[in-house]
Write a structure and sequence with these properties.
The complex is a heterodimer of chains A (about 120) and B (about 110).
Chain A: E1 5-7, E2 10-13, E3 19-24, E4 31-38, E5 42-50, E6 53-57, E7 64-68, E8 74-78, E9 87-94, E10 106-107, E11 111-115
Chain B: E1 4-7, E2 10-14, E3 19-25, E4 30-38, E5 44-51, E6 56-59, E7 62-67, E8 72-77, E9 86-94, E10 100-102, E11 106-111
Parallel strand pairs in B: 2-11
Antiparallel strand pairs in B: 1-3, 3-8, 4-5, 4-9, 6-7, 7-8, 9-10, 9-11
Classes of the chains: A mainly beta (about 120), B mainly beta (about 110).
Protein backbone atom coordinates (compact mmCIF):
# COMPACT_ATOMS: atom_id res chain seq x y z
CA UNK A 1 0.00 0.00 0.00
CA UNK A 2 1.43 3.38 -0.94
CA UNK A 3 2.34 5.76 1.85
CA UNK A 4 1.43 9.39 2.30
CA UNK A 5 2.57 11.47 -0.65
CA UNK A 6 3.17 15.19 -0.73
CA UNK A 7 3.71 17.46 -3.69
CA UNK A 8 5.77 19.35 -4.49
CA UNK A 9 8.75 18.21 -2.47
CA UNK A 10 10.58 21.50 -2.77
CA UNK A 11 9.33 24.99 -3.41
CA UNK A 12 10.89 28.44 -3.54
CA UNK A 13 8.62 31.46 -3.33
CA UNK A 14 8.99 35.20 -2.86
CA UNK A 15 7.58 37.21 0.02
CA UNK A 16 4.00 38.26 -0.62
CA UNK A 17 3.21 35.35 -2.93
CA UNK A 18 0.86 32.53 -2.06
CA UNK A 19 1.46 28.79 -2.18
CA UNK A 20 -0.60 25.60 -2.26
CA UNK A 21 0.72 22.30 -0.99
CA UNK A 22 -0.91 18.96 -1.66
CA UNK A 23 -1.20 15.77 0.37
CA UNK A 24 -2.55 12.38 -0.65
CA UNK A 25 -3.22 10.14 2.36
CA UNK A 26 -2.79 6.40 2.56
CA UNK A 27 -5.66 4.70 0.75
CA UNK A 28 -8.64 4.36 3.08
CA UNK A 29 -7.40 6.92 5.59
CA UNK A 30 -9.93 9.62 6.33
CA UNK A 31 -8.12 11.98 8.66
CA UNK A 32 -5.40 14.31 7.41
CA UNK A 33 -3.32 16.58 9.62
CA UNK A 34 -0.77 19.24 8.73
CA UNK A 35 2.31 20.29 10.71
CA UNK A 36 4.99 22.91 10.31
CA UNK A 37 8.57 22.10 11.31
CA UNK A 38 11.21 24.79 11.81
CA UNK A 39 14.58 24.70 13.58
CA UNK A 40 13.45 27.34 16.07
CA UNK A 41 9.91 26.21 16.91
CA UNK A 42 10.13 22.50 16.20
CA UNK A 43 6.95 20.73 15.12
CA UNK A 44 3.70 22.64 15.39
CA UNK A 45 0.19 21.54 14.55
CA UNK A 46 -1.62 23.51 11.85
CA UNK A 47 -4.98 21.77 11.38
CA UNK A 48 -6.73 18.46 10.94
CA UNK A 49 -9.46 17.44 8.51
CA UNK A 50 -11.90 14.58 8.56
CA UNK A 51 -14.61 13.95 6.01
CA UNK A 52 -14.01 17.34 4.34
CA UNK A 53 -14.45 19.19 7.66
CA UNK A 54 -11.81 20.93 9.73
CA UNK A 55 -12.01 19.32 13.16
CA UNK A 56 -9.06 20.94 14.90
CA UNK A 57 -6.97 24.01 14.32
CA UNK A 58 -3.64 25.09 15.78
CA UNK A 59 -2.52 28.56 16.70
CA UNK A 60 -1.57 29.93 13.29
CA UNK A 61 -2.73 33.14 11.58
CA UNK A 62 -5.56 33.12 9.07
CA UNK A 63 -3.04 33.22 6.21
CA UNK A 64 -2.79 29.47 6.72
CA UNK A 65 -5.80 27.59 5.44
CA UNK A 66 -6.63 24.16 4.19
CA UNK A 67 -9.29 21.95 2.76
CA UNK A 68 -10.04 18.31 2.19
CA UNK A 69 -11.70 16.75 -0.80
CA UNK A 70 -14.17 13.89 -0.97
CA UNK A 71 -11.36 11.44 -1.79
CA UNK A 72 -9.59 12.54 1.43
CA UNK A 73 -6.81 14.33 -0.43
CA UNK A 74 -5.95 17.60 1.25
CA UNK A 75 -4.40 20.90 0.33
CA UNK A 76 -3.04 23.67 2.47
CA UNK A 77 -2.64 27.23 1.33
CA UNK A 78 -0.46 30.00 2.68
CA UNK A 79 -1.21 33.50 1.44
CA UNK A 80 0.99 36.58 1.62
CA UNK A 81 4.11 34.59 2.38
CA UNK A 82 6.57 35.85 4.97
CA UNK A 83 10.21 34.89 5.46
CA UNK A 84 9.25 33.12 8.67
CA UNK A 85 7.03 30.73 6.74
CA UNK A 86 10.13 28.95 5.44
CA UNK A 87 9.78 25.47 6.88
CA UNK A 88 9.21 21.80 6.24
CA UNK A 89 5.47 21.20 5.97
CA UNK A 90 4.43 17.70 6.91
CA UNK A 91 1.18 15.95 6.26
CA UNK A 92 -0.04 12.94 8.22
CA UNK A 93 -2.94 10.59 7.68
CA UNK A 94 -4.83 8.30 9.99
CA UNK A 95 -7.34 5.53 9.39
CA UNK A 96 -10.11 6.81 11.71
CA UNK A 97 -12.96 4.84 10.12
CA UNK A 98 -15.71 6.12 12.38
CA UNK A 99 -14.63 9.64 13.30
CA UNK A 100 -13.20 8.78 16.70
CA UNK A 101 -9.54 8.54 17.49
CA UNK A 102 -6.96 9.86 17.64
CA UNK A 103 -5.27 6.90 16.02
CA UNK A 104 -1.75 6.33 14.82
CA UNK A 105 -0.58 8.97 12.37
CA UNK A 106 1.57 8.24 9.34
CA UNK A 107 3.63 11.00 7.85
CA UNK A 108 4.63 11.95 4.34
CA UNK A 109 8.12 13.12 3.33
CA UNK A 110 7.15 16.78 3.58
CA UNK A 111 7.35 19.83 1.36
CA UNK A 112 10.36 22.07 1.93
CA UNK A 113 9.20 25.67 1.42
CA UNK A 114 11.76 28.43 1.14
CA UNK A 115 10.56 32.03 1.11
CA UNK A 116 13.03 34.63 -0.19
CA UNK B 1 -1.01 23.69 28.78
CA UNK B 2 0.71 20.43 27.88
CA UNK B 3 4.47 20.55 27.52
CA UNK B 4 6.63 17.71 26.27
CA UNK B 5 10.33 17.51 27.09
CA UNK B 6 13.00 15.18 25.77
CA UNK B 7 16.32 14.72 27.50
CA UNK B 8 19.06 14.53 26.41
CA UNK B 9 18.96 16.69 23.29
CA UNK B 10 21.78 14.64 21.80
CA UNK B 11 23.34 11.27 22.54
CA UNK B 12 26.32 9.48 21.04
CA UNK B 13 27.02 5.83 21.88
CA UNK B 14 29.11 3.00 20.43
CA UNK B 15 27.45 0.38 18.29
CA UNK B 16 26.00 -2.57 20.18
CA UNK B 17 25.02 -0.71 23.32
CA UNK B 18 21.53 -0.72 24.75
CA UNK B 19 20.16 2.77 25.32
CA UNK B 20 17.20 4.64 26.72
CA UNK B 21 15.63 7.84 25.43
CA UNK B 22 13.40 9.84 27.74
CA UNK B 23 10.20 11.80 27.20
CA UNK B 24 8.26 13.64 29.90
CA UNK B 25 4.96 15.49 29.78
CA UNK B 26 3.31 17.87 32.23
CA UNK B 27 -0.35 16.89 31.88
CA UNK B 28 -1.05 13.22 32.56
CA UNK B 29 -4.48 13.31 30.86
CA UNK B 30 -3.11 12.07 27.56
CA UNK B 31 -4.97 9.91 25.07
CA UNK B 32 -1.91 8.29 23.58
CA UNK B 33 1.81 8.79 23.03
CA UNK B 34 3.73 8.13 19.86
CA UNK B 35 7.45 7.73 19.19
CA UNK B 36 8.84 8.72 15.79
CA UNK B 37 12.20 8.83 14.12
CA UNK B 38 13.28 11.44 11.62
CA UNK B 39 16.25 11.07 9.32
CA UNK B 40 17.97 14.26 8.12
CA UNK B 41 15.82 16.14 5.61
CA UNK B 42 13.15 13.47 5.71
CA UNK B 43 9.66 13.01 7.05
CA UNK B 44 8.69 11.16 10.20
CA UNK B 45 8.49 7.40 10.63
CA UNK B 46 6.13 6.11 13.29
CA UNK B 47 7.87 3.65 15.60
CA UNK B 48 5.44 2.86 18.40
CA UNK B 49 2.11 4.11 19.69
CA UNK B 50 1.07 3.55 23.30
CA UNK B 51 -2.52 4.10 24.33
CA UNK B 52 -3.08 5.75 27.71
CA UNK B 53 -4.35 2.44 29.14
CA UNK B 54 -1.19 0.56 28.11
CA UNK B 55 2.11 0.28 29.95
CA UNK B 56 4.38 -0.68 27.07
CA UNK B 57 4.68 -1.60 23.42
CA UNK B 58 7.37 -3.56 21.64
CA UNK B 59 8.52 -3.73 18.04
CA UNK B 60 11.66 -5.65 17.24
CA UNK B 61 14.58 -4.09 19.12
CA UNK B 62 12.41 -1.22 20.35
CA UNK B 63 10.41 -1.12 23.54
CA UNK B 64 8.43 1.91 24.69
CA UNK B 65 7.00 2.27 28.17
CA UNK B 66 4.48 4.69 29.55
CA UNK B 67 3.93 5.84 33.13
CA UNK B 68 1.05 8.31 33.01
CA UNK B 69 1.05 9.10 36.71
CA UNK B 70 4.63 10.31 36.62
CA UNK B 71 4.31 11.85 33.15
CA UNK B 72 7.07 9.79 31.60
CA UNK B 73 7.77 7.56 28.65
CA UNK B 74 10.98 5.82 27.68
CA UNK B 75 12.13 4.33 24.40
CA UNK B 76 14.54 1.46 24.86
CA UNK B 77 16.71 0.48 21.91
CA UNK B 78 18.51 -2.83 22.22
CA UNK B 79 21.79 -3.69 20.51
CA UNK B 80 22.07 -0.32 18.74
CA UNK B 81 23.26 -0.17 15.13
CA UNK B 82 24.63 2.70 12.99
CA UNK B 83 21.33 2.63 11.06
CA UNK B 84 19.55 3.70 14.25
CA UNK B 85 21.21 7.11 13.97
CA UNK B 86 18.41 9.65 13.63
CA UNK B 87 16.42 12.15 15.64
CA UNK B 88 13.83 10.53 17.87
CA UNK B 89 10.70 12.47 18.74
CA UNK B 90 7.86 11.75 21.10
CA UNK B 91 4.43 13.32 20.79
CA UNK B 92 1.22 13.12 22.82
CA UNK B 93 -2.44 13.44 21.91
CA UNK B 94 -4.95 14.85 24.37
CA UNK B 95 -8.51 13.46 24.59
CA UNK B 96 -9.97 12.80 21.17
CA UNK B 97 -7.92 15.49 19.47
CA UNK B 98 -5.57 14.70 16.62
CA UNK B 99 -3.32 17.58 17.54
CA UNK B 100 0.05 16.08 18.43
CA UNK B 101 2.10 17.99 20.98
CA UNK B 102 5.79 17.41 20.34
CA UNK B 103 9.02 17.18 22.20
CA UNK B 104 12.08 18.80 20.66
CA UNK B 105 13.68 15.42 19.97
CA UNK B 106 16.85 13.55 20.86
CA UNK B 107 19.51 13.37 18.17
CA UNK B 108 21.06 9.92 18.39
CA UNK B 109 24.40 9.00 16.85
CA UNK B 110 25.56 5.39 16.89
CA UNK B 111 29.29 5.13 16.32
CA UNK B 112 30.53 2.08 14.36
Amino acid sequence: KAGVTQTPRYLIKTRGQQVTLSCSPISGHRSVSWYQQTPGQGLQFLFEYFSETQRNKGNFPGRFSGRQFSNSRSEMNVSTLELGDSALYLCASSLDLFGGGPYEQYFGPGTRLTVT
Amino acid sequence: KQEVTQIPAALSVPEGENLVLNCSFTDSAIYNLQWFRQDPGKGLTSLLLIQSSQREQTSGRLNASLDKSSGRSTLYIAASQPGDSATYLCAVSMDSNYQLIWGAGTKLIIKP
